[in-house]
Each structure stands twice: as structure tokens, then as C-alpha cells.
Amino acid sequence: MKSKNNSLNAGGFAHPKFSDETILNINSDDISVIRFENVQVRIVKINNNPWFVAKDVCDALQLTNSRAALLALDEDEKDVSLIYTLGGNQKLNIISESGFYKLIARSRKATTKGTFAHRFTNWVFRDVIPSIRKTGAYGVPFSALNDFTKRQQQYQITASKHGRDLQSCKQKKADLQREERELWKKYQPDFLDGEIH
């Protein structure tokens, strides 16, 4: 398949360009989240292909000019999608898997030892990609994380109303912390190396 500029892309396969109708059908079941050192990257599954939220990737790679980073990608490696977030549906820039790898390869900080971007890149290539190859997935499904976050917010409202000394609120908080550890243990076990308490 050839793209508009008649060059072959992605090993001979051009990424599909999505219509507004396709984009609007993305729901929380098609979103997962990976987290590294408290930076989250949302991944949207479109036609069984991973697309990454561009802002999250640029933050992880410490790219300060995300607009320039996106302009450097081929047209079939970027798109805009309506994605459910905790604040409601938002239009977000997304990048294809090949676009994600291109941003990593082009990032100076990703190749500079000692930077966060370098650690993130190593983690992607050493942990995330091998896990996806073996199991087909990596990260916590957004719907599970979203449900947890809503209950955590409800706890904070309840704790404020009833005061901090209520034993039931303390127990609920401990239960939520334990549940969060279990979510990360189940979907991203390497993350638990002392980061969630």
C-alpha cells in the first residue's frame, strides 16, 4: 500500500488514516496506561494497533516542543483522536507505533545517559516491548484505572466530610492503596520497585 507521497511506510504497510466516525468510537476499553517513574503514557488501541498519546510521549522523552516533534513525523504516523479522559472527552494528538519509535530515535535526551528520557527509552526497549511480544499487552487497562480513580476521589470527598480521624476512612484508604498495588502488580509488576507505598 502506498501513502499519498508514493513512498512505502512501516515496512511496506501504510498506517490507515482514520475517519471522524472511527475516531469517535474509541472508548475506555481501548485505552491502557503504562507508567514509569510517575510518568504515564496512554495507549489507544485502534484497529488492534497501538497509538500513543503524543503529549505523554513527548513528556516522557523530555521534548519541550511537541509541535515540532509531531511535524517531523510522516502524515500517516500522527492523527487526532477523541479520547475519554477523567475530564471528559478530549481531542488529543496520537502517534503510531512507528512514530513513537521515531521520536525515541530522534530524541537527543533519549541517547544521553543519566537523563530521564534515557531511562524511559531503556525501559521501553528492555521491558515493555518484550512483554508485549510475549503476552500481547503491557500496562493497566484504562477502565480499571479509571474506576479506581473515581473511587479514590470519592474517598477523598468522604474523608473531608467526616474528618480525618474516622477509622472507616483510614481502612478504606489502606484498602485503596492495597488495590492500587495489586493493579500495578497484575498489569505492570516491574513498576512496584518501591514506587507505590
TrEMBL record:
<feature type="domain" description="Bro-N">
    <location>
        <begin position="23"/>
        <end position="136"/>
    </location>
</feature>
<dbReference type="Pfam" id="PF02498">
    <property type="entry name" value="Bro-N"/>
</dbReference>
<dbReference type="InterPro" id="IPR003497">
    <property type="entry name" value="BRO_N_domain"/>
</dbReference>
<protein>
    <submittedName>
        <fullName>Antirepressor protein</fullName>
    </submittedName>
</protein>
